[in-house]
Design a protein that fits this description.
about 500 residues; alpha+beta; Butyryl-CoA Dehydrogenase, subunit A, domain 2; Butyryl-CoA Dehydrogenase, subunit A, domain 3; 2 domains; six-stranded mixed beta sheet; four-stranded mixed beta sheet; 16 helices; about 45% helix
Length: about 500
């Protein structure tokens, strides 16, 4: 078993059937097409790191299944330290790629979520899902593949359950069960990093009841499986023509973020790749098993993003002729924000516990508090970065790279954008501020890993408010019962 190189990874993508569309055209090669190549480059940084003697230990681990070195993104997290290493690696990957490598982190979390869920299902129902997952995971590790994760369904009318929708395909569902597998129809939407993935790991999008058993489904498929059509979403800062050039309009050449819609049109999934097929009672635990490690580690992602914001803001200030000391309070607050989300993720890991399957599960209260903080603090850090950089880094007022080099008036742009540093240096620094605060370098802070409101719901669930009441009563010497007042009708 050998860890792939970056080039071997790209070659594996080139061998796949083209089935991704954007701007009305089929993308023949995701590794070279200007609308997808940057996300592939970002994910290739993982393969470069695992072959770098100085970084290898941070992104690889020994497989508990085979005893061989594997990518951490293909591992089962089995201890608090490995969950901490998860956060550290995600922070590192943001620093190496300049953006989100979501085509791996969601897939990795999906594997861990279903590792625990299938163990429980097999234990309770005498199924063989866990063994299927084990055999597939061994193969995935041996092939050293990139796996994206897909949870979000279109949902349709939010007031209705899947079985109540006018169109039952609004949530991905099983339309046929065969002796050798299942057939699914529907969609998964807003899925990160699909263009960079070899396979897609699908989870149920919510907790379901018996009437919605057909929507309780989990499986993994090659990205190019027959019947799957993928459409890449347009980012607000999509600059297709500019990305084709080696310009500072696309300031980060090591990565880029993409989101996609996945349309399943009667896709057959063989049994060996099916990990849930109607077991609705386990959909809730599958979702919870996903969000705990994801919401703990996302603090590392946004801390890595924040590291870049700090550096880009300081560079722009210096190019403007201002020392960083002028912005000491703002920079200090940026560091506080970064380390708050990172540290909360570490705390969730340390206070977690081991599931009977061997998977480590972070503390649910702190993991969800971290998600609530991630939905707020990175935006505050962005505002501070823009404030330090000044208008050039926030108002979208810089001319394009093409105009900068125009033979008729480019010299005027270079003259009037010069400050304490050259115009090019100043523009490159300011473009990086744009990238991390308003552009394609932003991960899904508000809704990545679920909504902030969803996280707060779990915070209320795990907060133990009655324990706090019990402590307060004892300290205040109150013996009278004070139950929660009944809700008024």
């Amino acid at each position: 078993m050998a860890l792939k190189t970056a080039e071997e990874y790209k070659q594996s993508l080139r061998k796949m059937r083209p089935n991704i569309y954007k701007f009305g055209r089929l993308i023949e090669d995701v590794t070279t097409d200007p609308v997808t190549k940057w996300t592939v480059e970002g994910h290739s940084q993982i393969y470069k790191a695992q072959n770098d003697p100085e970084l290898k230990d941070k992104v690889t681990v020994i497989s508990h299944l085979t005893g061989e070195p594997i990518s951490r993104y293909l591992s089962i997290i089995r201890s608090a330290q490995e969950q901490i290493d998860n956060s550290k690696m995600k922070r590192l990957m943001f620093q190496l790629s300049g953006t989100c490598t979501g085509g791996r982190c969601a897939g990795w979390t999906a594997i861990n979520a279903m590792w625990a869920t299938t163990y429980d299902m097999d234990n309770d129902l005498k199924t063989n899902y866990h063994q299927r997952l084990t055999e597939w995971l061994k193969s995935a590790q041996e092939r050293d593949i990139t796996i994206s994760g897909a949870l979000t369904d279109p949902k349709g009318d939010r007031t209705k359950k899947p079985s109540q929708q006018d169109d039952p395909d609004m949530n991905l569902r099983i339309v046929e069960k065969r002796d050798d597998g299942i057939v699914v129809r529907g969609a998964k939407v807003m899925i990160c990093g699909i263009a960079a993935a070899n396979e897609v790991f699908v989870l149920p999008g919510s907790s379901y009841k018996e009437e919605d058993a057909d929507w309780a489904v989990s499986f993994v498929v090659p990205k190019d499986i027959e019947g799957l059509t993928i459409v890449e979403a347009r980012h607000p800062n999509d600059t297709r023509e500019q990305e084709e050039q080696d310009s500072f309009d696309n300031p980060v050449k090591q990565g880029g973020i993409t989101q996609a819609y996945l349309f399943f049109e009667d896709v057959f999934i063989p049994n060996e790749r099916v990990f849930m097929a109607g077991e609705y009672k386990y959909t809730g635990s599958a979702v919870v098993n996903f969000i705990l490690p994801y919401r703990a580690a996302i603090g590392g992602c946004v801390a890595g993003q924040g590291d870049i914001k700090v550096g880009a803001a300081i560079l722009t200030a210096r190019a403007n002729g201002l020392p960083s000391k002028v912005f000491s309070d703002k920079l200090t607050q940026m560091y506080i924000n970064n380390e708050t989300t990172f540290g909360m993720g570490i705390a969730a890991a340390v206070l977690g516990k081991k599931h009977p399957s061997g998977a480590w599960q972070p503390d649910p209260l702190i993991a969800n508090i971290n998600k609530a903080l991630v939905a707020r603090l990175p935006y505050e850090t962005s505002v501070l970065a823009q404030d330090i950089a000044g208008g050039i880094g926030e108002t979208g007022c810089m001319p394009s790279y093409v105009d900068y080099n125009d033979e008729n008036y480019g010299h005027l742009i270079k003259k009037y954008l010069k400050a304490a540093a050259s115009a090019e240096t100043r523009m490159r620094a300011a473009r990086l501020v744009e990238w991390t605060t308003t552009g394609a370098g932003i991960p899904g802070c508000m809704h990545g890993g679920g909504s902030a409101d969803g996280a707060k719901m779990f915070v209320r669930l795990f907060s133990g408010m009655e324990n706090s009441v019990k402590v307060a009563k004892r300290l205040a010497g109150i013996e009278e019962e004070l139950p929660e007042p009944a809700k008024k009708k």
